[in-house]
Amino acid sequence: MIKMECDGCTVCCKLIEIPWMDSPRGEYCKECEPNVGCRIYDHAPEECLKFRCAYNQVPKCNINLRPDKLGIIFDKITDDVFIGTVNPDVLISEEAQKQVALFVKEGFGVVLFNDKISKPMVFSPKGKNPREIWNEVLRIREFVVTEIQNANIVIHKKFHLNGQVA
Ligand code: SF4
Ligand code: SF4
């Protein structure tokens, strides 16, 4: 998960449950040095190395989009879909809303959720069926969405919740 391109962000190694490291959601993985990085990155588990966080995939990405600042970790799970894990302790900022809108405008499906909401929010680009996007999420990242696997989804065209997700 954590690479040089993370610029000192270490939020995914706390916010997301990491079963292969026996690390529950909300606690730092034992190999994480908060705000610095992963102590074992060179030989970290394959699952960590496969994580496709949008921020660290983009060289010289705007620092305001760093997941710990933005409040959402965008993870590109397929060529067409981003999962956004929302920090349950922060409101979705205007910057984060703009980022979702941009992804959708560029043709990506976006699914937002956190462990406090029972209905994941699905944003689908024009011409794409939101249910297909959700099914893709279930197929690819089953371990992340276990708790809300059977939940109904809420389909959004745009934000209208004044920054609230729950
Ligand atoms: S959320 Fe992204 S930028 Fe932050 S530590 Fe994880 S991989 Fe790096
Ligand atoms: S092993 Fe490293 S990259 Fe993987 S969860 Fe732990 S701190 Fe993060």
Cα-atom radius of gyration:
15 Å
Please tell me the overall pLDDT.
Answer: 81
Q: What is the N-to-C order of secondary-structure elements (H for helix, E for strand)?
A: HEEHHHEEHEEHE
| Total E-strand runs | 7
Number of domains: 1
Bound molecules: iron/sulfur cluster
Q: What general outline do the C-alpha atoms trace?
A: globular
- Biggest sheet strand order reads 3-4-5-6-7
Runs in which pLDDT lies below 50 for 5 or more consecutive residues are 160-166
Which percent range describes the beta-strand content? 15-25%
Helices, by number, come to 6
Oligomer description: single chain
Gap between N and C termini: 27 Å
User: How is the main sheet built?
Assistant: 5 strands, mixed
Helix content: 10-25%
Could you walk me through the main structural features you see in this protein, from its secondary elements to its overall organization?
The chain has 6 helices and 7 strands; from the N terminus they run αββαααββαββαβ. With 166 residues, the chain is an alpha/beta fold. The protein has one domain. The strands form 2 sheets. Strands 3-4-5-6-7 form a 5-stranded mixed β-sheet, with helices on both faces. Strands 1-2 form a two-stranded antiparallel ribbon. Strand 5 and strand 6 form a beta hairpin. It is globular. Bound molecules: iron/sulfur cluster (2 copies). The site of one iron/sulfur cluster has 13 residues, from helix 3.
